[in-house]
Amino acid sequence: MVQSVSAADGFGAGQAIARARAAGRAALIAYLPCGFPSLTASIDACRALIRGGADIIELGLPYSDPVMDGPVIGQAVTEALASGFRVDDLFEAVAELAPAGVPIEVMTYYNPVFRRGEERFAADLADAGGAGLITPDLIPEEAGPWITAADAFGLDKVFLVAPSSPPARLRLTASACRGFTYATSTMGVTGLRTSLSGLARPLVERTRAAGAANVCVGVGVSTPAQAAEVASFADGVIIGSAFVKRLAAGQDLESFTAGLREATIR
Questions:
Q1: What are the residue ranges spanned by the domains of the chain?
Q2: pLDDT digits over 79-105, tens only?
Q3: Cβ(224)–Cβ(196) under 8 Å?
Q4: CA gap 46, 58 in Å, rounded
Q5: Which residues are catalytic?
Q6: What is the CATH number of domain 7-263?
């Protein structure tokens, strides 16, 4: 039987990004919400992403007030919750996916972590083989309990920076992250866009100058051409809505992922 690996075992997002870099690529980080269209279907969909070559899986925890999510992801998480998704389902999904050897980073708003308790959430995630959390609505100054719990269990801590982030904010966020720093390519919610913002490249450069070891870009990346553009200057390419839209339509995920992975070659 294949054993689960996680950030606590020395294999988190940072290691996956380093492995992709050594192969001459940016890492491909693929998002899907847990529980959509069902728990089993979401696990199977993530396995398709892994077969297609995703370096990191970003597994979304459905939440009732997804303030950063655009309409595609928002509809998916609403359907997952309506179908009876519970937080315990997340850890079941992580445990099913972790043996594949690809880091599972959970994307979650902070309230579910707070309600469960930071230490309990971290322990459950580590026990399931998860790599860490991406917390879009949490800033490092208010993340003390989570940072303590994540450090105790060796989990990644991924915080966000935006084009509007001043130098002091970039330094603080970069120093708090483990795994990578998430750079949003534009201001606004997630979703498919026809072109990328010109703010992404300078944001990556400023975040690296602030001390970030790995900077990955998301929000609005949806096509191989856009992935190639981001891969030319970032350490990782984060794609979400494009996968969710294909899953909702019953379209092939594996070959689409493979094409995106090919686009990350520099």
A1: 7-263
A2: 999 999 999 999 999 999 999 999 999
A3: no
A4: 9
A5: 58, 69
A6: 3.20.20.70
